[in-house]
């Protein structure tokens, strides 16, 4: 849609300007710090800007009920980008930081078709034949890059909140951002905990524990929190923000379940990541929990033996994929995705939100759950 493209262009322009400002700052400290800017530009040059889009339309959902529906046309006439664009760009910086740290924890080699940040820095070390361990240098430098991006997301959010005319809305937005940051951080821990400690849990708890990871590691910060952030920035009522959450959370679950399917079955030429990457990383996803519950003991033992082995061969990947398909877990996951989308759409039916936002959110619900990347 033209409006979606224009909005993404505005967010991209703000990110580019912000990175230029930070490049000048780092250059004044030391020219060697350009490695952080190069990596940041490459990482932020990709992505679908889903979080930015949901933040804007959460804002519009509220603001458009008291102002013209075509608010996006107004944005082009402003010399300074409005506060919601700053917040949307801040979410993309936060997401980039999470990706850098996530790739370190998962020992991932690629991200968006390029080397993951820690692999990029490893390669720098090796190409210059520096002393010490390339792996140690790569991990340490990537950790610092993630920390920089995380701090920068806060800085950019503060710029946006300072533009708001209502201090109460600014405080509510700051609280929303802080809650999101806490939830995704602990959700990330719950994810890595499940990879190593799943045997400590009763079999009946594996599926709800996997669903808990989906909720806090991804669903909330991918869709629910951006929507709520935009809504409170616009001064949304409790009813309006609750409606955005009721739409955002089930859609976020569907979004992550689609991501989990792609992590097992996705085409590397499309996803930009190796085939079966989540299998090598040992992700104890909802799909794995469903498969284990449906399979005979011998097939479950095969999954438990191979899942998380970093050197899985293509044949072993194919064997695991076939075993998971045979269990019926893929079909069950697809049904959960569809049911979650329908729950989200039902929450919009009588929601007190703008007409344009309702239409756009319906379109986005299809986009984020039927994607191939």
From TrEMBL:
Pfam family, one: polyprenyl_synt
PROSITE patterns, per database record: POLYPRENYL_SYNTHASE_1, POLYPRENYL_SYNTHASE_2
Broadest EC class assigned to this enzyme: transferase
Enzyme Commission identifier(s): 2.5.1.1, 2.5.1.10, 2.5.1.29
InterPro entries, per database record: Isoprenoid_synthase_dom_sf, Polyprenyl_synt, Polyprenyl_synt_CS
Record Gene3D superfamilies: Farnesyl Diphosphate Synthase (1.10.600.10)
One GO MF term attached to the UniProt entry: metal ion binding
Lineage: Bacteria, Bacillati, Actinomycetota, Actinomycetes, Micrococcales
CDD domains: Trans_IPPS_HT
UniProt name for this protein: Geranylgeranyl diphosphate synthase type I
Keywords in alphabetical order: Magnesium, Metal-binding, Transferase
SUPFAM superfamilies the UniProt entry points to: Terpenoid synthases
GO biological process entries: isoprenoid biosynthetic process
Cofactor: Mg(2+)
Family: Belongs to the FPP/GGPP synthase family.
